[in-house]
Please model this.
Amino acid sequence: MSATRKRSDCPISCSLDIWGDKWSLLIIRDLMFAKERTYGDFLKSKEGIATNILAARLQTLEENGLIEKLDHPDSKAKVLYKLTRKGIDLLPIIVEINVWAEKYYTIPEERKAMMKQVKKNKAEYIETRIKELTSR
Model:
């Protein structure tokens, strides 16, 4: 595993070195709110990530222990990507980003149902989602 080069010892800076680019949290988002995903699944996302960028981000996330590759049950040519516990532990951050975004932007309909649950009981929502993600 190659180490990510740190700009400083600041916890925010160290974290951003791993997942603070334009694409990594979107990959993590997709893995949190969908089941395992293939490379092709990521390429189909609305945001339109380029294949070379996707490959680099997946490699960085894997090298830093946030995601793992699994054998695809239906194809030897494909792999499935899945969050590790370290990746799953980003769920509270993803939830807070959604809370902030809902306050300032119009959010998609599919996200509104999630936000309704979050507003009802954020801690319970996070605990339930973490259990779901770790049981996959």
